[in-house]
Amino acid sequence: MRHSAEVAIIGGSGLYDPDVLEEPSEIKVHTPYGRTSDLITLGSYMGKKVAFIPRHGKEHQIPPHDVNYRANIWALKQLGVRRILSSNACGSLSEKHKPGDILVLDQFIDRTKSRPSTFYESGQVCHVSVADPFCPELGSLLFNQGTSLGIRIRQGGTYVCIEGPRFSTRAESKLFRKWEADVVGMTVFPECVLAREVEICYGSIALVTDYDVWAEKPVSADEIITVIRANVDKAKRLFGKVIPMIPEKSGCDCGNALANAIL
Ligand SMILES: [Zn+2]
Fold first, then answer.
1. Which of 11, 23, 85, 157 pairs with 235 at a CA distance of 20 to 30 A?
2. pLDDT of the residue at 1
3. Residues taking part in catalysis
4. What's the whole-number mean pLDDT along residues 127-132?
5. Mean pLDDT throughout 185-204?
6. Which CATH architecture describes the domain 7-256?
7. Ion ligand 1: residues, Cβ under 5 Å
8. How far is the CA of 221 from the centre of ligand 1 (A)?
């Protein structure tokens, strides 16, 4: 293929601009699932070929439940991407996670309802394992490099993915806390699982913007925007540190996810 990339960044809320990439060019990738969230930017960063997609589009015009997750992941696979780093804004379900904190996710709970969530719809049966849905190698890199940057970052965290676009009720939020989940958001699923289905490593950081409704600590839109800006700055620095350190040959099993999955 004329265009290619090794690593991709899927930018969440606030992360729309791959301004760190050298010699950026925008391309359109056609997929059997329709349009990607936006044009894909290709460029290089410290010797690595990198692709960037803003999950909600550059103008933040696509709400979480309408993101064409399959087109995005399919397009990245077509480009040859083997590692994805993603950022996801979220609300905290615990006093332990304060606005501005970052969690390297290691589990999710799916509470979505209406999203196409597999590439295997008919004709081929595939039960891919997502017991550990995130790439452990990318997770360690994200945590270690985050720590070295002095960012408040935590290794591991369970993310409840709600359908949206509405937020949770108080009862739902309290229930998620009883499930011992750490954060709640609208975008990790099915993106994470689709990456596994095409054997791409997927590492994700959850950026805490505020406390979810259980905490009864209402915040203004201005306060949230200030936190999102600071979080996006941290995410960019962190991805910038991690990308050159991703080893050529992976030490995880994500690349063999389909070995025993297809019937
Ligand atoms: Zn992996």
1. 23
2. 60
3. 210, 212
4. 96
5. 98
6. 3-Layer(aba) Sandwich (3.40)
7. 135, 137, 201, 252, 254
8. 36
Helix boundaries (H) for the chain: 69-78, 136-148, 170-178, 191-197, 221-242
How many angstroms separate the alpha carbon of residue 159 from the centre of ligand 1? 19
End-to-end Cα, the chain, rounded Å: 30
Separation of 220 CA from ligand 1 center, angstroms? 38
In this prediction, residue 30 carries a pLDDT of 97
The b-or-e profile of 135-156 (16+ CB within 10 A means b, else e) is: bebbbebbbbbbeeeebebbee
**pLDDT tens across 6-40, in order?**
999 999 988 888 888 999 999 999 999 999 999 99
Distance 256 CA to ligand 1 centre (A): 9
For residues 230 and 207, give the distance between their C-alpha atoms in angstroms, rounded to a whole number.
10
